[in-house]
Amino acid sequence: MAILVNPDIRVIIQGITGKQGTYHTLKMLEYHVHVVGGVTPGKGGQKVHGVTVYDTVAAAQKEHQVDASMIMVPPAGVLSAAIEAIDHKIPLIVIITEFVPVHDSLVIRNMARKAGVRVIGPNTIGVISPGKGKVGIMPGYIYSEGSVGIISRSGTLTHEVSSNLTYKGIGQSTCVCIGGDPVKGTDFVDVLRLFRDDGQTETVVMIGEIGGAGEELAAKYVTENGYPKKIVAFIAGRTAPAGKKMGHAGAIVAEGFGTAESKIKSLAEAGIVVVRTLDELLQAVK
């Protein structure tokens, strides 16, 4: 089964004519994703790797059924692009763009929740169900089909953990990078709920990091509701100095809030297997 994406998903790419949009359109097509159109205002009628470009999301929807949109526009344009996708009820919106203003992310998240639309990101590599499809910018060859579901705040660690699992002969059901920003459309608890009901997923890997409360909220969810599947968690940033932003905009410890140790403690108390290194993670999953 897997979650969020499947072999039949039909995707548009907002920002398809940009350098990154053009490149990742090709990579999506090579992964056999049905990229049915792209959207760049003022460039309707052009083609990118054989994919038709439209001026608006509405124009693309007139010609195609659209199940997902991948947004790859500059930060200042993300809000308007996301609003357009939300207004047209595209079920899955994946925002790759980094450095989206926090206020814009808040507006996007609130609008999406009211509209019943799922947003992944901003600042994400996207979602992949190996062997089935992806809406994202990850290299498909390092992922393999299997039964381990991954939820991660870090794109790089999503790559590393998945490739290490693949090397060990352990495949993945779906890998969801929720993004490293303070405000995100989908958090750990949201994806845990999806994996809970997924028949393909047998083990869940959570890759967290310092800052925010997403991991603690996940621990609270598991404590209050129980969880029928094994969860293995790794928290990055244990040695990060307080008050210093580390890589992601959301990876910052301030006034003792969002520390690695507080997250590790909460997760362990919820009965989740918490590991200190990625080698330990591989062993725990095996």
TrEMBL record:
<feature type="active site" description="Tele-phosphohistidine intermediate">
    <location>
        <position position="248"/>
    </location>
</feature>
<dbReference type="InterPro" id="IPR036291">
    <property type="entry name" value="NAD(P)-bd_dom_sf"/>
</dbReference>
<dbReference type="InterPro" id="IPR005810">
    <property type="entry name" value="CoA_lig_alpha"/>
</dbReference>
<dbReference type="GO" id="GO:0006099">
    <property type="term" value="P:tricarboxylic acid cycle"/>
</dbReference>
<keyword id="KW-0547">Nucleotide-binding</keyword>
<feature type="domain" description="CoA-binding">
    <location>
        <begin position="4"/>
        <end position="100"/>
    </location>
</feature>
<dbReference type="GO" id="GO:0004775">
    <property type="term" value="F:succinate-CoA ligase (ADP-forming) activity"/>
</dbReference>
<dbReference type="Pfam" id="PF00549">
    <property type="entry name" value="Ligase_CoA"/>
</dbReference>
<dbReference type="Pfam" id="PF02629">
    <property type="entry name" value="CoA_binding"/>
</dbReference>
<dbReference type="GO" id="GO:0004776">
    <property type="term" value="F:succinate-CoA ligase (GDP-forming) activity"/>
</dbReference>
<dbReference type="GO" id="GO:0000166">
    <property type="term" value="F:nucleotide binding"/>
</dbReference>
<dbReference type="InterPro" id="IPR003781">
    <property type="entry name" value="CoA-bd"/>
</dbReference>
<keyword id="KW-0436">Ligase</keyword>
<dbReference type="InterPro" id="IPR005811">
    <property type="entry name" value="SUCC_ACL_C"/>
</dbReference>
<dbReference type="InterPro" id="IPR016102">
    <property type="entry name" value="Succinyl-CoA_synth-like"/>
</dbReference>
<dbReference type="GO" id="GO:0009361">
    <property type="term" value="C:succinate-CoA ligase complex (ADP-forming)"/>
</dbReference>
<comment type="similarity">
    <text>Belongs to the succinate/malate CoA ligase alpha subunit family.</text>
</comment>
<protein>
    <submittedName>
        <fullName>Succinyl-CoA synthetase (ADP-forming) alpha subunit</fullName>
    </submittedName>
</protein>
